[in-house]
């Protein structure tokens, strides 16, 4: 049972770390695209929007789902703790508290992934909107 618990714990945390790396990589790639983009190369606003918002949905998905994946790890950790209590018949309070506290680490990691991902999404989306507004101004399509 200990091997299964470790596999679940580190599997969930490993997946969350992977999601964090993906989110950060996409945000960096998008910011580099924004920096090197020439607005004059686009004759159509929709084509510009497609280029600017490419892959942003992945960052948003990671930001919104990371807490749930962390919560899944916590629920599984609590289930393993209760399983151990049931198997032993009696368990010291200290061991129970340690098991429950360690189960919460997955939720903490999920939040540590989600919060920066949501911030990166909002930051890159704002950059995209600013570039679209600049394109509209340059092409005489600004205003209400």
List keywords for this structure.
mainly alpha; 5 helices; membrane; TonB_ExbB_2; Biopolymer transport protein ExbB
Q: Which overall shape is indicated by the principal axes computed on the Cα atoms?
A: rod-shaped
| End-to-end gap | 63 Å
Structural class of the secondary structure composition?
mainly alpha
The profile of the biggest β sheet is:
none
The domain tally reads 1
Unreliable residue stretches: none
Strand content: under 5%
Percentage of residues in helical conformation: over 70%
Rg from alpha-carbon coordinates: 22 Å
Number of continuous helical runs: 5
Mean pLDDT: 91
| SS elements, strand count | 0
Order of helices and strands: HHHHH
Your description of this structure?
The protein is mostly helical and 144 residues long. The chain has one domain (2-135). The chain has five helices and no strands. α1 (2-36) runs antiparallel to α3 (56-88), α2 packs antiparallel against α5 and α3 packs antiparallel against α5.
Summarize the structure.
This protein is an all-alpha fold and 144 residues long. It contains 5 helices and no strands. 85% of the residues lie in helices and 0% in strands.
List the helices and strands and how they pair.
Blueprint: H1 2-36, H2 45-53, H3 56-88, H4 93-103, H5 105-138
